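>> received
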Amino acid sequence: MSSLEAVWVQPYDRPGTAVVTGVFDILHVGHVRYLGAVAARGLPLVVGVEDDPRVRAWKGPTRPVNPAEERAEVLAALRFVTGVFVVTGPPEAHGPEDYIDLLAPMRPAALAHTAGDPHAGARAAAAAILGADCWEMDAVPGRSTTRIVNAASKT
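>> returned
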């Protein structure tokens, strides 16, 4: 049993979705283009937002900038997003087995990630175990929350 839990903000409980998980701290054009490209493949798009303690453990004490509930609310407002949940659980629960247990009840048809994702291999393995396709999507060059935060701190 996984130590991760999905806390639904905008529930969607039908099988056959494309699932994306991430931080989505400060929504920017890279996020919008990425999520839009996933949605354009024709499956309902469900987005998992990592909770605050998990983000803080991974990215440091100044992150996230926005709380998980607000990040989820902003994502839910995008017209091409069908469902949104917050991923809760201990920060060390980030392996493929944790996400397999989390996502299996959702019965996704695809898991998507950006090119260059350091966890791409694990995501592909998880997708195979779940019987889902694994979609690697192009990242938007030069667009990241970390870059925005670093630029803002210099002003």
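>> The first strand starts at residue 5 and ends at 10.
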